[in-house]
Design goal:
- It is a single chain.
- By secondary structure, the chain is of the alpha/beta class.
- Helix content is about 35%, strand content about 20%.
- It is built from 12 helices and 18 strands.
- Helix 1 links the parallel strand 1 and strand 2.
- Helix 2 packs parallel to helix 3.
- The chain is globular and about 65 Å long.
- It starts with a strand and ends with a helix.
- The relative contact order is 0.10.
- GO terms for molecular function: glycosyltransferase activity.
- Pfam families: Glyco_transf_4 (PF13439), Glycos_transf_1 (PF00534).
Length: about 400
């Protein structure tokens, strides 16, 4: 099989990243994968004999336009590519059984490949691009849904338009699968669930937990965007620290809300207790030094960072989103609280402070939930099976 993957995950560009390594293995199993992804510059990289990555720089509109030009290049006869990408020849190829045109994807100078499937990691603007390419090339389209940060207005209408034209839809959780069926009326016959693989190797040794009066550390990891609702954590922490001063909250991530969240912390005079760490690629140190993990999203497709924390035997406090109840079970591997409930969050945080044995039990439960997930090999086999059945 030869697959065109339209992605938003920039970790694919990062050498040595877990996402990139998994994709290399998946491409070996599939045969060949070509990835289009936003990046810092326009370039092509032959990652392996089975995986080629094109990155496109600029504002989002410019990136999509470059992707479209590159995607339709084989049928237009053009050989141009953004600076750094080189020159590529192209021609039309006919399907002998039907005389219909099929897509031709240039992977290298003078080298042509027919692709048989387009998979797109977004049901919105990138998804629309996938719909147009799939229709133009007359190949099946898979739409991957990892969650909905904004599911109203134009974005909802666009998602409906894209999803209705997909040949198959992958949801990353059963909760999301049911949402797609009930809200967008996607038939179960074209829906399947395949979670985001937890690309974390558990530490070789168990780190001894610190306890009060040493700084008990709550950790959160994620983009600083509205849907993650980091503000909820700050408000709950501000209430709790009045009762238990020897605690801290570490926030790892960056995003458009960084300045406003820091301003809020400053207004509460909690700069020494709530620490913004910025973006960090290697999270091991933060997981090892933490005592509990927080995820307070208003909406989540899956929640990969929760599983990373579980691999480090951290007790989890999370809102009822994503993999909550599907993987993390209330009072077995963590606490699941209602979305947006500041009081319940504060009480759950306080309970972990007061009961070290509870922390250990929930942490071990989270680790067992992590270990029970399918292996990387099983994940890859499932993905290949779904693609083969579609083609």
């Amino acid at each position: 099989m030869r697959i065109l993957n339209l992605s938003l995950d920039r970790e694919i560009i990062e050498k040595g990243s877990a996402v990139r390594q998994r994709l290399i293995l998946l491409a070996e199993k599939v045969g060949e994968i070509v990835v289009f992804v936003p990046g810092e510059r326009d370039e092509k990289e032959e990652v392996s004999t089975h995986l080629t990555v094109y990155s496109f720089a600029g504002p989002r509109v410019a990136q999509l336009w470059k992707m479209w030009k590159k995607g339709k290049e084989p049928l237009s006869g053009s050989s141009s590519f953004p600076k750094g990408g080189g020159e590529f020849s192209s021609r039309r190829i006919l399907n002998p059984s039907s005389d219909s045109e099929v897509g031709v994807l240039p992977l290298g100078k003078g080298e042509l490949r027919v692709f048989e499937l387009i998979t797109v990691q977004d049901p919105h603007f990138l998804g629309l691009f996938g719909v147009l390419l799939a229709k133009k090339y007359r190949v099946p389209l898979e739409v991957q849904v990892h969650g909905f940060e904004k599911s109203s207005g134009l974005r909802k209408r666009l998602a409906r338009f894209v999803l209705e034209r997909a040949d198959t839809v992958r949801a990353v959780s059963n909760r999301l699968k049911e949402h797609l069926h009930s809200i967008f009326h996607i038939p179960y016959s074209i829906l399947y669930t395949l979670p985001v693989y937890a690309q974390t190797a558990p530490p070789q040794k168990v780190i001894k937990r610190k306890t009060v009066p040493y700084p008990f550390t709550f950790l959160t990891v994620g983009r600083l965007v509205p849907v993650k609702n980091i503000d909820l954590q700050i408000r709950a922490f501000a209430r709790l620290v009045k009762e238990v001063p020897h605690i801290r909250l570490r926030i790892v991530g960056e995003g458009p809300l960084a300045d406003s969240l820091k301003s809020k912390v400053e207004s509460l005079t909690l700069e020494k207790s709530i620490i913004f760490e910025g973006y960090r690629r290697d999270l091991r140190r933060y997981y090892e030094e933490a005592d509990a993990f927080l995820l307070t999203s208003d909406c989540e497709g899956w929640g990969r960072v929760v599983l990373e924390a579980a691999a480090y035997r951290l007790p989890i406090i999370m809102t009822d989103v994503g993999l909550a109840r599907e993987v993390i079970k209330n009072e077995e591997s963590g606490f699941i609280i209602p979305v947006g409930d500041e009081r319940e969050l504060m009480l759950a945080m306080k309970e972990l402070l007061d009961k070290p044995q509870l922390r250990e039990r929930l942490g071990e439960g989270a680790f067992r939930a992590f270990k029970a997930l399918p292996s990387r090999e099983a994940y890859i086999e499932k993905q290949v099976e779904e693609w083969r059945s579609l083609i």
